[in-house]
Amino acid sequence: MAARDKLLPEVAEFLKPDPVQMFIDGQWTPADDGGTFETLDPGDGALLARVAEGKAADIDRAVAAAQKAFASEAWGGLAVKDRAVLLHRLADLVEAHSDALIQLESLDVGKPIPQADFDVTNVALMLRWYADLAVHTRYSEPIATPNFEARQIRVPYGVAAFILPWNFPILLAGWNISPALAAGNTVVIKPAENTPLSALLLCALAKEAGFPPGVINVVPGFGDTAGAALAAHTGIKRMAFTGSPAVGKLIASSCGANLVPVKLELGGKGAAVVFDDMDPKVVAQKLTESVTLNTGQVCCTATRWLVQKKLWDKFVPAATQAMKSVKIGHGLEATTQMGPMVSQTQRERVLDYLERGRKDGAEALLEGGPVTVADHPDGFYITPALLTGAPDNVCAQEEIFGPAAYAIPFGDEAEAVALVNDCPYGLANSVWTADLGRANRVAEAMVAGSSWINGHNLFPPGVPFGGCNLSGLGGGVGSAATFFDYLRNQSIVRPLE
Ligand code: NAI
Ligand code: MG
Q1: Span from the CA of 108 to the centroid of ligand 2 (angstroms)
Q2: Residue 442 CB coordination number (10 Å)
Q3: Which end of the chain is more exposed for a tag (fewer CB within 10 A), N or C?
Q4: Do residue 18 and residue 54 come from a single domain?
Q5: Cβ of 343 less than 6 Å from ligand 1
Q6: Domain identity same for 339 and 260
């Protein structure tokens, strides 16, 4: 049975309009030029929906709507608590409609239902977390200085723009827009062309929650048209991008030309350092779960497995066994642990990396490759791979963005830290040891935005997440600092006679 036949009534209803329209100024609207594009269910390689394709003219309309909303009494004139009420109402609706959001996300990305569930749950959590922070923030702080009455006020910037990727479409929409909205900005989102649907369903919920027209706008479309137009728009006051370093640099250049502050989150090549006081089976299982989460399409996942030599002979068979046991299937099937790659392009990209890695001298401890899943012959499925070899191999240095890990043995702590830091990225790494003194030492020495101890992919609310070096700039997401990134400071000063 095709996934299309298993749709929840609410999802079927949402997908009924052909095309699914974009959302500008509180209205569902076609593209200015009537253009459309297709988004697929990667589990079947089949059409999921046709979607209105936004281009520069639609971005212009969306930014104008967001500017108008920012200047309006309905949003700009709203008290902080009223804004926070709207954010909580939206979170309520995300929870009430979570089954539909989860199924839609699972279908558009190809991810298993429990993983889509985590993402949707996280959206509600972030909306509430930033709503509460907004309520408890002081927006006018006195400054203690002689002979002047001085204070600093915090005010929103205006229109904040977001260009988002396809690996966590709804979660990243939530993480990114929650602080911006809570701070009082208005937003324009350009979701990824592979996965535009969940951000659009979020707009339907925002409308129902009572968000005024123009506060949240979503313009689906391609990067070099809609995305480039949004990044270069002189009407935006802030920009946040998540995706590849190559595109991040283009966006930063566009924003630089207009002096618009920008946040970039650009992926990584996360390491996991496993010391020999750990149970190899337990860690192998956890790292397998990490590298197969979302079919390895996770910026911060553990892809370089650095294993202390004494543990190597036990760790490798445990890891290959755990990776072989991962149940691959369509995202909507209850037994599935790992879904397809998001697209044929991404599948080919990963297979190409594995091929190049082997040519570059890596040994395959577990050969990964394309695989056909019963009843879903046209899905973009792939099996996990485990390579080993020199640390300068292309597969040990570059982001593969698939279920592929690269294992390297190490001798002592200093060697492990040097291996971790021999990398152009700096997003997130983990250290695994029962010795908490050593764990904290290594955690501090690894150069990245996050160091995790005895776990990987850990996201408690309020903990900052963002990379350094090739992994990004501009302060990241997920913390109180992110909220303040969406408020500009203004000093007010009066001489005292
Ligand atoms: P991408 O960087 O091209 O796409 C991300 C977003 O940027 C999409 O919304 C896309 O439409 C937009 N975009 C593309 N070109 C643009 C342009 N010229 N101006 C403005 N916006 C533009 O990433 P892609 O090609 O889909 O994936 C390639 C690789 O990038 C992946 O294999 C992975 O290594 C990395 N990546 C990292 C992500 C992360 O979470 N940090 C997410 C997605 C991709
Ligand atoms: Mg899709």
Answers
A1: 4
A2: 24
A3: C
A4: yes
A5: no
A6: no
| Structural domains counted in the chain | 2
- Is residue 125 included in any domain, yes or no? yes
For the entire predicted model, the pTM comes to 0.97
CA distance 406 to 281: 17
Q: Are strands 36-41 and 46-52 parallel, antiparallel or unpaired?
A: antiparallel
Residue 143 lies in a domain: yes
Residues measured by CB to lie within 5 Å of ligand 2, the ion = 39-40, 108, 194-195
Do residues 260 and 281 both lie within one domain? no
CA-to-CA distance for 386 and 396, rounded, in angstroms? 11
Q: Phi and psi (nearest 5°) for 124?
A: -60, -40
pLDDT confidence bin for 2, thresholds 50/70/90: low
What value does the mean pLDDT take over residues 310-319?
98
* Residue 251 Cα to chain centre, angstroms: 17
Neighbouring C-beta atoms of residue 46, cutoff 10 Å: 16
Give the model's confidence band at 472: pLDDT under 50 very low, under 70 low, under 90 confident, else very high: very high
Token pair 């009572």: residue: 210
* Rounded Cα distance, 278 and 263, in Å: 37
Tokens 């618009």 belong to: 260
Same domain (yes/no): 366, 234: no
Indicate whether 463 belongs to any domain. Answer: no
Catalytic positions, written as ranges: 265, 299
In Å, how far from its chain's centre is CA 466?
11
* Residue 411 CB contacts under 8 Å (≥ 6 apart), including other chains: 308, 309
User: Same structural domain for residues 259 and 312?
Assistant: no
Pairing mode of beta strands 186-190, 216-218: parallel
Q: How far is the CA of 244 from the centre of ligand 1 (A)?
A: 5
Residues 335 and 301 both lie in one domain:
yes
What pLDDT score does 384 carry?
98
Res 33 pLDDT > 70: yes
Q: Where are the beta strands (DSSP E) in 15-67?
A: 22-24, 27-29, 36-41, 46-52
Residue 98, SS3 per DSSP? helix
The per-residue pLDDT for 269 is 97
Which residue range is the domain that position 201 belongs to?
Answer: 1-265+470-489
pLDDT on residue 393: 98
Q: Are 45 and 380 in contact (CB under 8 A)?
A: yes
Query: For position 148, which CATH number holds?
Result: 3.40.605.10
- On whether both 330 and 405 belong to a single domain, the answer is yes
pLDDT tens-digit map of 428-458: 999 999 999 999 999 999 999 999 999 999 9
Q: Is 401 in the pocket of ligand 1 (CB under 6 A)?
A: yes
Digit-coded pLDDT (tens) for 163-201: 999 999 999 999 999 999 999 999 999 999 999 999 999
